[in-house]
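Researcher: Here's my situation. A collaborator sent me these components and asked whether they could plausibly form a single complex. I don't have experimental data yet, so a predicted model of the whole assembly would be a useful starting point for our discussion.
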Amino acid sequence: MSLVLHKPAADRGGPAQPLLIVGGLRKHFPIRGGLLGRNRGAVHAVDGVGFQVGKGEILGVVGESGCGKSTMARLLARLIEPDGGEVIFDGDGVGAADGISIRDLRRDLQLVFQDSFASLNPRMTIEDSVAFGPRIQGLSAAEAMRVAHDMLGRVGLEPSRFGGRYPHELSGGQRQRVNIARTLATRPRLVILDEAVSALDKSVQAQVLNLLLDLKAELNLTYIFISHDLNVVQYISDRVLVMYLGQVVEIGPVDSLYRDARHPYTRALLSAVPSVDPERRTRHSPLTGDPPSPVNPPPGCRFRQRCPHARAVCAAALPEPVEIAPGHRAACFMADPASGYDSSPTEGGR
Amino acid sequence: MSVTGLATSSPAPLAASAVRSHGYWSGVGRRILRDPVTVGCGAILLLIAAAAVLAPWILPADPYRTSMLHRLAPLGSAGHLLGADELGRDMVARLVYGGRLSLMLGTLPVALAFVIGGAIGVLAGFAGGWLNMVIMRSLDVFYAFPSVLLAVAISGALGSGMSNSIIALTVVFVPQISRVAESVTTQVRGLDYVEAARMSGASAFTIIRAHVLGNVMGPIFVYATGLVSVSMILGSGLSFLGLGVKPPEPEWGLMLTTLRSAIYVNPLVAALPGAMIFVTSMCFNLMADGIRSAMDMKA
Amino acid sequence: MTSFVSVENLSVRFHAAKPVHAVNGVSFDLAEGEVLGLLGESGSGKSVTLRALMRLHPDKVTRYGGAVRVDGQDVLGMAPAALESFRGKTCAMVFQDPILAFDPVYSLGRQITETILRHEPVDQATARARALELLERVQVPSARRRYDAYPHEVSGGMRQRAMIALALACRPKLLLADEPTTALDATVQIQVLLLLRELQKEMGMSVIFVTHDIGVATEISDRLAVMYGGRIVEQGPLAEVMRDPRHPYTRGLLASTVTGGMRGRRLEAIPGMPPDLTLLPPGCAFAPRCGLAGDDCRAAVPPLAATGRRQIACIRAEAPCAPA
């Protein structure tokens, strides 16, 4: 269509090169208090996160509030500066001397937020909002508007009917479609969807999920799909990453992870999903208590205070991820035969 | 009366409702026009302003001509509809001419402070971090003084006179407007659509122009409108203290001072300049309220 | 036999620039000790219906129609004093956001104690002891310490538990729950659901549980009422509705809700969007989104017709699947 003017950046690294490689990503937010602003600890929002995303893949990210999934999205988009770690986009280090600049990264990577209303400028018509990105990328006003209309059409909003409207004149589902159009108008290669369908009604959510899958195929996209809804993540993802208190506890292909979760937290999360079968209601809660705060987490495994299987070894060291099945890794001593984990039911000896 | 001279300027942008990008403001205009209080106040202010501007052509009497015969003439005397002051000058003429200086003292400092303070506040709010700290903490120094005292001190230091009064009042309002501008900008800066604009690679300047200004101007403008009455009262106060306008120039605050001694002789005449200050500042305040509620965007 | 709660042709209209027809003729009964799930999307009128049962909408802008009887009392016609004792004593509510239910300047325990004192002729010490007992009962760990905690000092899950304790302070016969688990994390949500189920059984309360989440409704309800456009479109025993939904909207909702085994299939989304409550069509509110709709559907609102224990408001409701 009219998008010949406006192509996505070329595939630089070839199909085998992962689109995104993240290693040791870290962000601590200091908590200051008192008159002199003394440091009273830090929120360990993201603490040594590493993973890869292949081209054309959908990586689901799940976890509870405070697990750092939204902070991670903002770190990847460089909306906030990481304290440490490296991010490699299609073979080029982000911000590295010989790598890709933040500015170029933002050409290739876009973010869709949960709050469809806050994501749109209330004083701009939606076609202007969608045209803004292409305009910044150097298209003329007329070309940018053509791209905007094309994108609005692709997300199912007829530009002649909806283009001149303001965000508050649309429903939540329509607004989220506009956000998707706005995001895709700059022709990114990687889109991070941060709880993008969570606020929508189920019947509308299904429409938007279908749309996301269609657009992914049509425009050759790669998604990182962040959500607290395990059913939706299972539906849409190729691989799934589970976060707990700023760390990756388990990652693997969706089938393997949902069928054979090895980290006790992943298992608890999966069995906490409400049943839709009246004959098979949940009988026991997998965990007790609330997720702890990510402020100054204890040493060792961060899940051990809620973990029914915790032993002395869990407090002594942080478990490293071990491979269980091809591409399926869990950071739990129980999964690692060499860890010295004592599986006897009583408290293990010293 | 002959209001036409001024009336053309304000409704013009509102009339452009056919243009889609003006949709928001035309909506605001429509809501303002539906609110009788705001429209009434606007009309009164327009009337006062028009009379002040057109004074030489519409007024038969000279505001400077004294007459011992008519000293403190009561309301309704022949030739002096609203009486005359302690030197026998016609009150109608003096009140109308006084509106020129008083309105200028009310609006000019606020307009200047709106531009300067708004720019400082938006900059500080958008920059955040240490720059914000430095800017806002230095402005806080001005906050330590009550605004009346600050205005008196500055115009005392600069010397009396109209332009010095305006400078003094501008300095008083800049920190106040900056603070409001900074806080609304800080709010808007954290919203997802500004982050989305950053993601599209836009420069800070472009983001401020396209996404921030439009969304912070409204609240800052409304706040500033409310300051007009404060500015008028402070300006009148400066004149009252002899730091602002010099006699025999007609200015409402100054008139109030000089008529102070006549309060027992002819209280109605003596109260007239005060009434003008009251009505004008009241209208500005009510109008600010009306604009504020008209600008409320339905979520 | 009269039922414990009986709602007859309830309508709720809000007066604004454009009147909002939030609830348009809702009728249902609830037996003692029964749990009814009110399932619907945003704007379906589920929360408005729930609040109407306690007459919580501001009197000035709300026009009620129909009748609501709870435990033999006429709620819509009640005098203010009677209403005050009805709220809290006969009927209590838990909200989605517990921070709104608590006064931020008093400790959690004290507010529960005060509620008991207001409704029952007991002394301070007894009320306090009962408040502590309640906090323990809703699984607030170290209840004695949490008694003196302020609402902002505890986690969301803990606040939600404290609100349940507050609602149960006077052993109400009817508990109204408005999405009480929606804002909670998954592992906390299931704990709170199980707790509510347990307390309901133990105290023999009737519960009306409003939710948009089919899974949550399944975990808690005995009977399910599905709402759309301010009306109940389908009602019946949970297992029957879930196994064999008849109304096209219920079918669509179940089909578009993502669950475990759907991977790789295209979702059957319902086209269009929920209706505008200021501008409801004259006929079936779902007709504009319904594949089966004909002119007769658009002409008049289909009545909620009973077949056995089921009620369906659709003139094209499909025949039941072959029963097992």
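Model: Some features of this prediction you could bring to your collaborator: The mean pLDDT of chain C is 89. The two ends of chain C are 31 Å apart (CA to CA).
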